[in-house]
Amino acid sequence: MAGAAPGGASRSEIYRGNGPRLMLPIWVFIGIFLVMPVVMMAVHSFLTKEFRGGVIWEFTFAAYDQFFFDRGLFGDEPPKIEWTYIGIFWRSIWQAGLATVFSLLIGFPTAWFIATRKPNVRPGWLFLITIPYWVNLLIRTVSMKFLIRDTGPLNEFLLWSGVISEPLSLVNTNFAVQLGLFYSYLPFMVLPVYAAVERYDFSLSEAAADLYSDNWTTLRLVILPVVKPGIVAGCILVFVPSLGAFLAPDLLGGAKTFMIGSLIEEQFKGAAGNWPFGAAAAMILLAIVLGVLLLHAHAQTRVER
Question: The ABC transmembrane type-1 domain covers which part of the protein (predicted)?
Answer without folding.
Answer: 89-296
